[in-house]
Here is the input.
Amino acid sequence: MISVAVKDVDKRFGSILALNKVTFTVYHGEIFGLIGPPRAGKTTALKILGGTMCPDLGSVETLGFEPSTDSARLTDLVGLKLHPAHLEPKLAVCELLEEAASTYHKPLGLKWLKQSFYLTDFLEKSGNQLNRCEQNRLALALAFINDPKLILLDEPEKEIASYFQEHVLRLIVKARNWGSTVILTSENPELTCRFCHRIAILEKGQIKAIGSPKHLLSQYFPNFSYLTNGGLAGIGG
Here is the structure.
């Protein structure tokens, strides 16, 4: 069953071609990684999948809908976390969570979210008082709050405390075990090899290859040693 289908997508910003004939498919229950250097087009691709940006050319189908025209119908189905996080600066964290939960039909319990994403120490802080680590933990929680069928995570390992990184990986795998499909971006080959089922190598707006992390990382990152004892089983759910 297909969750996401992208075909020949172009996106241009002035003279810069951010995405160039990008094509890939993501299947239900997959954890799929878009890996590449900065300015490869990873964030642009996620924005298009989530319906916050329109492609110039090509077709996109997210959970059976066209994001650019059916974004309202995808609200309850998709969770999106961008990097850097964009938060309402004046509302307290507890208010942000309550406001977000009120917009969905079946949100996850706020108590579980606060505990799972380690938010309890700064619930009374406003968005503009949060440090980068706190901002990203809150942004991750907001991406999960609607119990989405598809979770789009832009560099989920970036600017969060080291002790929290492993926990985030477990939460992502848990979401997949609950029935979600996950698409994430990263510059980190270790992250993708540990728990992505498939990855796409994205460079200068073009997909260079799609396949298993083990095979592609040895080709595109020859100095990287694949963790044979890692993977989804090593992280657990």
Remarks:
- The first helix runs from residue 42 to 50.
- The radius of gyration is 17 Å.
- The chain has a mean pLDDT of 90.
